[in-house]
Design brief:
six-stranded parallel sheet, 354 residues, alpha/beta, lipid metabolism, lipid degradation, hydrolase, 10 helices, GDSL esterase/lipase, signal
C-alpha cells in the first residue's frame, strides 16, 4: 500500500467515525479538578505499560535508562526512568496524592512495599511481543493477578485503586521492523486496539474501579522521525496512523463504559497535549519555553548511536544539551521531566475549558 492509499484508508475510517456521532469520555489530568476523574479517594496506583511509565523495571545490565546521563535531573543519577527525571507515572501519582509506586522488579530483591500500589510497566513492551524480552501487558496483568491470588493485595486495596495503562507505540515499531513496511498497518492497528481493550476489561474484572489509558502520542513528531527534517517537521503519515489508533481506542473505551454503565475507563489524551506543547513551544502560562521542541536534549553523534552510548574505551558517543529544562524531548522517543510537566499543564488547561 503506497502512502496515498494508506492516507485515504485512514481518512475514510476517520470520516466514518465522525458520521457515527459517538461521544467519548476523554479525561485529562488536573490536580484541582480531580473529582471529575475520580469519585473516590484513591489509595493505590497500579501501572501497566512501557517506557512512558516505567520507573525502574528493566534490567540494569540491559537498559539505557540505567546509564548516565538518564536521571541527571531526578533523582540525580540513573534510576531506571527513561528521561532525565520524572515520567508520566510520577505526575499521575502526585495528581492523586500518592508517592510513585515501587517497580515490580524490586520484589526480586525482597522489597514488598505495596503501600502506594505497584508499577508493572517495562520499557520497550506492548500488548503483543515486541523487540524486547520483557513482559508484555498480558504478563504484567498476570503479575497483578498473582498478587491478588496470594493475598498480597486484598479486595479493598484493589477496589480503592487507580490503574494507569500506557501504550506508546512499541507494537508498531516492532511490526515495521519485522515487515520492513507500513503495509497492512490499518488491520494491525485494529488488532492492537482490540487486544488493548481485552487488557482493560481484564484489569477492571480484577476489581479496579477506575482505569486511565493513554491515547497514542504523535509518533510522527518524535525525534527519531523528525531527524529526517533536521527536527523541523513532524511526519504527517505517521500521525495519520496514530489518529486512526486513537479513534479506535475512543470507540473501545466508549463501549467499555457503556457495558459497565459508569465511566470506569478514561482516556488521557497525550496526542492533543503533546501537539499543544509542541505548537506553543511550552505551556500556555509561558513558564516553560522550548526553543526547538522537536530536537532532543540527549542524542548520538550519528544515527547509530543513542543517548548514553559509549565506545569500547568508554568514550561518549552522544551529547547532552546545556539545560534539559529547555528541551521537550530527552532522547529520540521520551520527553524530559520538564516536557512531561508541560504535558501535564496542557492536560490541565484543556480540562478547564470543558
Amino acid at each position: 500500500m503506497d502512502t496515498q492509499k494508506l492516507l485515504f484508508t485512514v481518512l475514510c475510517f476517520f470520516l466514518l467515525f465522525l458520521l457515527s456521532g459517538e461521544q467519548v469520555v476523554q479525561a485529562r489530568l488536573a490536580h484541582h479538578h480531580h473529582h471529575r476523574l475520580f469519585d473516590f479517594r484513591p489509595s493505590k496506583l497500579f501501572v501497566f505499560g512501557d517506557s512512558y511509565a516505567d520507573t525502574g523495571n528493566n534490567k540494569k545490565s540491559e537498559a539505557n535508562s540505567w546509564k548516565y546521563p538518564y536521571g541527571i535531573t531526578f533523582p540525580g543519577k540513573p534510576a531506571g526512568r527513561y528521561s532525565d527525571g520524572r515520567v508520566l507515572t510520577d505526575f499521575l501519582a502526585k495528581f492523586i496524592g500518592l508517592k510513585s509506586p515501587i517497580p515490580y522488579r524490586l520484589r526480586e530483591d525482597g522489597v514488598n512495599d505495596l503501600k502506594y500500589g505497584m508499577n508493572f510497566a517495562f520499557g520497550g513492551t506492548g500488548v503483543f511481543k515486541t523487540l524486547v524480552s520483557y513482559p508484555n501487558m498480558t504478563t504484567q496483568i498476570d503479575f497483578f493477578q498473582e498478587l491478588i491470588k496470594t493475598n498480597a493485595l486484598n479486595t479493598t486495596d484493589v477496589e480503592s485503586s487507580v490503574a494507569l495503562v500506557t501504550l506508546s507505540g512499541n507494537d508498531y515499531s516492532a511490526y515495521e521492523v519485522r515487515n520492513g513496511t507500513t503495509q497492512g498497518f490499518p488491520s494491525f492497528i485494529t488488532s492492537v486496539v482490540k487486544q488493548l481493550k481485552v487488557n482493560l476489561k481484564r484489569i477492571h474484572g480484577l476489581g479496579v474501579k477506575k482505569i486511565a489509558v493513554t491515547a497514542l502520542q504523535p509518533l510522527g513528531c518524535l525525534p527519531r522521525s523528525t531527524i529526517k527534517s533536521s527536527f523541523q517537521q513532524c511526519n504527517g503519515t505517521e500521525n495519520s496512523l496514530v489518529s486512526f489508533h486513537n479513534l479506535l481506542l475512543q470507540q473501545a473505551v466508549a463501549k467499555l463504559n457503556n457495558d459497565t454503565k459508569v465511566s470506569t475507563f478514561v482516556i488521557l489524551n497525550l496526542y492533543d497535549s503533546f501537539m499543544f506543547v509542541l505548537k506553543n513551544k511550552g505551556d500556555q502560562t509561558g513558564s516553560t519555553k522550548f526553543e526547538n521542541p522537536l530536537k532532543p536534549c540527549c542524542g548520538g553523534i550519528s544515527s547509530e548511536y543513542y543517548c548514553g552510548s559509549v565506545d569500547v574505551n568508554g568514550t561518549k558517543k552522544y551529547t547532552v544539551c546545556d539545560d534539559p529544562e529547555s528541551a521537550f524531548f530527552w532522547d529520540s522517543v521520551h520527553p524530559t521531566q520538564e516536557g512531561w510537566s508541560a504535558v501535564y499543564s496542557a492536560l490541565q488547561t484543556t480540562l478547564e475549558q470543558l
